[in-house]
Amino acid sequence: MSEPAMTRFPVPDVEDLPADIKERIEYETDRAGFTPNVFLAYAYRPAQFRAFFAYYDAIVEESPLAREEIEMVIVATSGTNDCLYCVVAHGALLRIYAEDPYLAEQLATNYRTANISDAHRAMCDLAVKLTERPTAVTDDDIDQLRDHGFSLEAIWDIASLTALFNLSNRMALFADWRPNEEFYSLGRGSD
After folding, report:
1. Are residues 70 and 55 in the same domain?
2. Following DSSP, what letter does each residue of 3-35 receive, concatenated?
3. Three-state DSSP state, 181
4. How confident is the model at residue 190 (pLDDT cuts 50, 70, 90)?
5. Is residue 2 domain-resident?
6. What is the pLDDT of residue 3?
7. 3-state secondary structure at position 82
8. Is-contact 115 102, C-beta < 8 A?
9. 77 and 162 share a domain?
10. Bridge partners of 177?
11. Which of 36, 95, 107, 182 has a Cα-to-Cα distance from 191 of 20 to 30 A?
12. Which structural domain, as residue segments, surrounds residue 40?
């Protein structure tokens, strides 16, 4: 890793972390082939690490949304917030799950012109509206997603992901989380 996980706060040594957090980081490292910096950054505050990843896991593991849809919401939200870490990290995951090497950059820069379905555009519309103007969200936004075939549970998860990544984006920007170099090439056909 050429850059630290974050620059404004100390990055903890994995060996000094509580056993459950150390175990999760080791699991994620084995799965990815490197340690995603988000785990090291959140480990600075162990109770918050547990809470964040418990909520993230609850959404991802139980959602009726396809994994590529989950990543689309995260990338659209993170692009709206100019969050380099989350755009790069979740952009890599989106490229992998969608099997599309171009989609992440399209969504992060302007989802309205991305090569996505009308249903996915409506999904991103809600995520961006909830990010930029949360008090402007109305029943019509929910109805529009229902008209595109999303269940109420899926709509809830779109909002939950958006809210969680607004939190994560702000922490990443505040603490200056740095994307792992490995994320930049994942899902581009060169891995």
Report:
1. no
2. S-SBSSSPPPPGGGS-HHHHHHHHHHHHHHSS-
3. helix
4. low
5. no
6. 76
7. coil
8. yes
9. yes
10. 6
11. 107
12. 14-61
Report pTM.
Answer: 0.94
What letter represents residue 18's amino acid? P
Tokens encoding 156: 């809830």
Distance CA(179)–CA(1), nearest Å, equals 10
**Six-digit token string for 95:** 């490229």
Of the pLDDT bands very low, low, confident and very high (cuts 50, 70, 90), residue 1 is very low
**Distance between CA 126 and CA 132 in Å, rounded?**
10
Amino acid at 60: V
Cα 74 to Cα 165: distance, rounded to the nearest angstrom: 6
> Is residue 73 domain-shared with residue 148, that is, in the same domain?
yes
The mean predicted confidence, pLDDT, of the chain is 95
What SS3 class is residue 177?
A: strand
Q: Do residues 44 and 71 share a domain?
A: no
Which residues are registered as beta bridge partners of 6? 177
